[in-house]
Amino acid sequence: MHHKKTDSLLGICFIIILASVFILNIIIPDKNFSEEENRILQQKPEFSFSSYTEGRYEKKLENYTNDQFLLRNIFIKIKTASDLTLGKVKSNGVYKGKDSYLIEEIEKPNRKYMEKTMDGLAKFKEKYPSTKMYFLMAPNAGNILSDKLPFGVKMANQKKAIAEFYDGIAEIGYVPIDIQDTMKKTICNFIIILTITGLPMAHI
After folding, report:
1. Which of 30, 69, 76, 169 could covalently link to 174 via disulfide, CB atoms 3.0 to 4.6 Å apart?
2. How big is the CA angle at 113 (ends 109 and 114), to the nearest 5 degrees?
3. DSSP SS3 for 89
4. Is 175 helix (H, G, I), strand (E, B) or coil?
5. DSSP letter at 155?
6. Are 136 and 177 in contact (CB under 8 A)?
7. Could you report the per-residue pLDDT of 170-195, keeping only the tens digit for each?
8. What CA dihedral angle connects 53, 59, 62 and 64, to 10 degrees?
9. pTM over 0.70
10. Distance CA 173, CA 165 (A)
């Protein structure tokens, strides 16, 4: 009898907790940006028949539920602390590098997407043949700050991918602007200035 009362009480408490979390998730305003993850959070998606049949609505709704969950930042901090304790250096595609730098993983370029982009640029150039056009591709932190990556971590060769893309757009009439070396020198000088002045290091 005593066990039955305990089980019933636990069941009621569980239902109350779930109901409270559900209500609070509705009442508390949605957040637009996560400083902990340095990214924009998914907002409540608008329903449409086409997005539902194509599966886009369900995907966005799932991301919205995950991004706007109550006490989400606290759970993220607990998980991050747990990962660091276990010696993990990667969480949600982001590496914790040297000097407390947070560096997002560089993914291998999608060839189909690159070809589609190249085709779009070629058509745009054909439309305005007399206009001199320039193209700049901003490199990721993993490219510029590769020396800050954890020991043994290697990312996709973004420098090679950018060089190949620049060769392609040069053939169709664009002037590529490569800022990789400039950014490395600028960031290096910036770090030296912060070190001399004693200001806190900026995370990139």
Report:
1. 169
2. 65
3. coil
4. strand
5. -
6. yes
7. 999 999 999 888 888 777 555 444 44
8. -110
9. no
10. 13
Question: What residues contact residue 196 under an 8 Å CB cut-off, 6+ apart?
Answer: none
Six token digits for residue 194:
């912060």
Report d(CA 108, CA 111) in Å as an integer.
Answer: 9
Q: Note whether 68 and 30 are within 8 A (CB).
A: yes
Residue type, 171: E
Rg of the Cα trace of the chain?
24
Residue of 102, 129, 81, 108 lying closest to 204 (CA atoms): 102
Please, where are the H alpha helices in the chain? 2-27, 49-53, 56-67, 72-85, 111-127, 141-144, 158-171, 180-197
Q: Which two three-digit tokens encode residue 51?
A: 């997005």
Q: What's the one-letter identity of residue 177?
A: I
In whole angstroms, what is the distance from residue 87 CA to residue 47 CA?
A: 42
Task: With H, G, I as helix, E, B as strand and everything else as coil, classify residue 79.
Answer: helix
- Amino acid, res. 131: T
| Mean pLDDT for the stretch of residues 132-148 | 88
